[in-house]
Amino acid sequence: MPGYGVMHNLMNKLEIKNLYKIFGKDGLRAYELIRNGVSLDEVRGCLDAFPAVVDASFDVKEGEIFVVMGLSGSGKSSLVRCMNRLYEPTAGSISIDGVDLTRLSQKELRRLRLEKISMVFQHFALFPHYSVLENTGWGLEVKGVDKAAIKTKALEALEMVGLSGWEDKYPHQLSGGMQQRVGLARALATDTNILLMDEAFSALDPLIRNEMQQQLVMLQGDLQKTVVFITHDLNEAMYLGDRIAIMKDGHIEQIGTAEDILRNPATEYVAAFIEQVDRSRVLTAGSIMSEPVAVLPIWEGPSAALRTMRERQVSALHLVGPKQYLLGVVYADEVISAVRTGESELEPLVHPEVPAVGQSTPIADLLVSSAEYMLPLPVVEEGKLVGVVPRVALLMALGERVNASNGNGDGDVSAGVSNPARERELQTVGVSSASSAK
Amino acid sequence: MVLVAVVTGIVTWLLVVFRVPVGDWVESIVNWLTASAGWLFDFIRVIVNWMTGSLERVLIWPPSYVMAGVFGIVGWRARGLGFGALSFVGFVLIQSMRLWNDAMSTLSLVVVAAFVAVIVGVPLGILAANSEITSRIFRPVLDFMQTLPVFVYLIPAIIFFGIGKVPGVFATVIFAMPPAVRLTELGLRQVDQEVVEAAEAFGAPKFKILRKVQLPLAMPTLMAGVNQVIMLALSMVVTAGIVGAGGLGAVVYRGVTRLDVGLGFEGGLAVVILAIFLDRLTGALSGRKDGQKSTAT
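^ inputs. structure came back:
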């Protein structure tokens, strides 16, 4: 996603290297066997060992939402619990800002949890005997902050998640969505840079879940936290994730952006999995656009325009100014009459209303414009024409592995909502918007 | 399979052929303890005597009707006016049967024994909740403590502490402690694991999690344990009357030995009144939960 391109310059916040978590008495022996190529099934069969995470390696960049996606039993929850050592990893390393967690003493570990990582849980995990305010202030209380400061901080965090005025209630008086907001506020109140979210929205019903997802994206935009988000819902993963890791049987099958994974699934499992995704929400104009052909610089005359149209067998042309700035479109009938009257300038013929789209516009938003517009849709970045999306490319992208249903029913998430980050980049040229184009 | 059969066979043969002197072993252990840890038993005797003695003095210091009024008010505050009134009437009845001093003596024994059982039992329960091995070691020991006929404790208790209240308290503590351990462990294990993880994930040290999260959430179950402890203590204290612990136990025992139906029944009734009072009172404490009025946090 181009919008996040800047992140590649930033350092890795989290580095996971060859991480193993094997439950059971024979965990270490199982680890040795697996390293020497014995299969997981054999290990499970002959030892008291349950491999949950097997050889996981990845980096999470600062300010990124990194999603770990897998079905239940894939080891994703164990993985995230290793990342703050709620579970002791069997082998491997976890580095935060270059510090290896696995080497820390209990005391150092507690300090690191206070200062660097906080966590949001699937079933909220609020303290039922504490008020909303006390719940939110838990991290600060552990830190030893004085009461007045805890209150200020906690109220601030509650305001961020939209729960002002609820601070004196108890968790059982709140709805599920509100409880998870408290969970989020508790994690935000400590000002840690890293947020671990273990299926944070999975227990909420779909409408509330959408709302929370949007809120998370917005909060993340403001606060620039580094988020590791665990989910079993591929649509949620695609919607939230800057990058996604897909897990199966403790292995990470593939890591990449939503588009990478959709376009080049690394394994059969991933390929089977992504069939349920609404591709039109994930693929973007930028990923399927091609070189513009029906385009002409403005300084050419009407007769040149007519010739180009004949050559390219089109009945309209995009006109560009210097540096490929998109100015508008001219239509064949008007150009012909201009040639007849001996007009030498194209400028008066230009229609500035063009349904231009940004590179990151999801292709679902292109369908209507594409049907209404006679030329391939121009893709524009900062006013410059960078490519076009011909109707046929659009249809092919949708058709590659079409599953027309919106998601998997359980998690119809990204289908209903479009990414606010992407919407911001929707661009139009001139005075008009896409819908008013001819 | 064959091995198990062979071992079972050999063990059975040995048991048949030889008399296993379990009794001698226990006796020598008790003798050894008396000889080498006498100072400890003396110390315990002094402490327990002092505790029961002072508590008893406090309980019988005011006029009995005033004290019955105090119990009535405590019952009223804990459960409501009806229970308060009934408690008052019950205690007045005890006085009018002329069993007041005996009842207060029994009450002080029960309170001290239950207090000690809880003070020892709850930490053991915490240990058991945190370690599977400890839990597995404790389980048969607790079974043993609860099922061994209660009189059997009295024998070494008398050897250690002589006749009086202290062996009664000692036997009562041993007999009444298991529910404190068991229900503390259960209560702690029932606390939602995710909630404990949440506390941990924010860097809280173990002790703080125990004090601020686990124990408050385990409190209803833990209080049910305390309730059980008190009930068991009360039933044991009557038995303790036999070894000179005095109180209502002695009254009942006298009734039995003299075949005095009236005396036995009066003593028994006083025990029942005490039992109901204590049970409802501690039940009320364990019923207060869910943070509706959690001033304790």
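The first strand of chain A starts at residue 12 and ends at 23. Chain A has 19 helices and 15 strands.
thumbs up if we can close this ticket
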